[in-house]
Each structure stands twice: as C-alpha cells, then as structure tokens.
C-alpha cells in the first residue's frame, strides 16, 4: 500500500529499495513486515547516535513542550548555546544556522562571493572546487559539485566556478587567478567514493590560500561531528579552514545545517542571508544533545577504535576475496572499492540478509553506520557481507 501510493502521489526523485522502514532502535531498523536490519547507512551518515537514542528523544520531548519555532527576528537561547558549543570546539568565531548541508554550502558560497567582492571591489568571485566533489543539489551547491552526472539537464549552471584534480596542488595553482575568492573542498570526498585528502595537500592548499588571500572552505557536512574519530575531520591534518559547513550528524536525524566562520570570514551583515526555520529552538535542542555526547573524548576514541577494527575486518576479507580492490576511509566513514563494474547486486543481497549498505559510483561500497556501533555488530555485518561474496562466487 505505501509503495503503490508513493508511486502515485510522491514525485519520482529517488530509486528506492522495495522495503518500508517503520521503526528503529540503536543500530537496527525494522520494516513493515517486522523484518530486522542492521543499519550501516544511518540515514547517510546522519544517525550518529543510532535510532531513537534516549538523549535525542528526551531533547525533542522536552523542547516541544516549551517552544518549537520562532522567527529569527528574535533572540533564541538554544541557538546561542549551540553556536557557542560549536565555536568553542572548533576554530569558529561565529555560526549561521540553516536546515541542511546544501543550504550551509549555499551560505558558504554567498559568503565567499561577498568577501571577494567587497574587499576587492567586485573583482573576485570565482570559487575553485575539486573533481568528484559533492556539495549539494541547489544551484550554487550543484555548480560547486564537480560531477557531470549531477549537472545533466540542469544547465546552464552558475558562472564563476572551476574544478581541479583532487590531491593535486599544481592543478589548483594553475586555476587560481585574479578573479578567485575561495577554494572549497571536502576533507574526505563522500559521494565521490570516500577519497581522502592527503595531509600534505591540505597544508599546501592552506599556504596557497594565505598567499593569495583566498577563503579556504571545508565542507564537513558528511565528515563532521565525530564521523572520522575526531570531532571535525580537519583536525587530523592540523589544517584549519576559514569556513566550515556542517549538517547531517549534528541533528542526529533532525534537520539542521551550520556555517562556521573565523574572524576573517565573518562578513555577513543583516539582510545578507537568512533562513526561516534555521536554528529554531527544536533543532538546536537536538543539536546540543548530539554535541554533548559526541564531543566527549571517550566517545571519539571509541569511534576511532571501532573504525580501525572495521577496516581490519575488511582488510582481512580482502585477503580472501579478490573482489575487494581497496579499503579506504577514516573512522567510521569507510569505502570498499570493488573489482567489478557494478556492485548493486551485492547491496541487494546484503539487504535480503538483513544488512543495509550503500553503493557509490557503481562499485564503491560505503559504510557509515551509527557511531554507537559495537565491534560485535561490525563483525555481524561483515559476516553477512562475506556470505554474500561467497554465494555470488567472489
């Protein structure tokens, strides 16, 4: 009934799997027939505390009884507290709240343009991004996303963007000109296939931006809030950006996005940007609950430890199954490049056996489970995956 009515009434923008999920607890979800699944997708790196975590449930219930939404025409205590938590845990001087990662990236694009145009009398507007990046689906973020498959049928895109090879400083240097105002990168490319930026590369990018007075923007929509074993992925390299975007994990399942800036990039003034729902009391209450849990050193150490265990499990499987070409990623953001052109049948068979996983670029399995996952659950998931490999002759 749900699937047939979805096809009748909901716009056809997703290629969905043939199951309807109705309940979740921890790292598990159940469909309408009562079948249980181990969730290694977590809403695409969103449900960091798993499903129906008590602190999130309590934050929602408590705040709903007080105040759900007010306009940003008025001061909002929850918004101030969450901004303070994020800024004090990062490089940030101030934060702007919106509702998603793509909105946060749109805000970053506008901010970069204002920085370049006001400081250089309208002469700096170009933003450089990396090939295989993903920054969102609204027009600015879509143009910044340097993957042609997302652009098809939506041209003409916005002017003033150029894409370069990821992890190639010479490619970036050749693109910088008198019109450039910013460089926008993912510390680990998510939708592009779990591709990590090398520390040396990020250090070179930071130096280039400093030498040319460019804003360095890190899109941490997928990597931020504990996913890599650090609160923010930039901490692994020691390279600090001027601007950072966050979303996904911060709300633990509730929509929220954030633009974080240092003093240099703090150029927005009243009227420059806004969001009706951005930073509402309910979203910020949930964000605070997530931050209080994930930002603990013991929690981040657990993510790092379990991430290493996960990768070691996969590396051991690689020795036995030639289909695994490469294991990559950091923390609990892990990719497995397959030595076949299309791994969609692997994803389907894993789902049939009770394991939810995700596929990127046709042949990269992505694992972004809840950060509360245990070693036992990781091992269970890997046992299911190995069963799939064996049954398919890999």
Automatic annotation (TrEMBL):
CDD domains (UniProt xref): OAT_like
Pfam families attached to this UniProt entry: Aminotran_3
Pathways involved: Amino-acid biosynthesis; L-arginine biosynthesis; N(2)-acetyl-L-ornithine from L-glutamate: step 4/4
Binding positions for pyridoxal 5'-phosphate per the UniProt entry: 101-102, 134, 219-222, 276
Co-factor: note: Binds 1 pyridoxal phosphate per subunit.
Cofactor(s) listed: pyridoxal 5'-phosphate
Amino-acid positions noted as binding N(2)-acetyl-L-ornithine in the UniProt annotation, renumbered to this chain: 137, 275
GO molecular function: identical protein binding; N2-acetyl-L-ornithine:2-oxoglutarate 5-aminotransferase activity; pyridoxal phosphate binding
This enzyme's EC code(s): 2.6.1.11
One cellular-component annotation, GO: cytoplasm
Compartments, record wording: Cytoplasm
Keywords assigned by UniProt, alphabetized: Amino-acid biosynthesis, Aminotransferase, Arginine biosynthesis, Cytoplasm, Pyridoxal phosphate, Transferase
Catalytic activity: N(2)-acetyl-L-ornithine + 2-oxoglutarate = N-acetyl-L-glutamate 5-semialdehyde + L-glutamate
GO biological process: L-arginine biosynthetic process
Family (UniProt): Belongs to the class-III pyridoxal-phosphate-dependent aminotransferase family. ArgD subfamily.
HAMAP family: ArgD_aminotrans_3
Other observations noted: May also have succinyldiaminopimelate aminotransferase activity, thus carrying out the corresponding step in lysine biosynthesis.
PANTHER family given in the database record: ACETYLORNITHINE AMINOTRANSFERASE, MITOCHONDRIAL, AMINOTRANSFERASE CLASS III
Name of the featured protein: Acetylornithine aminotransferase
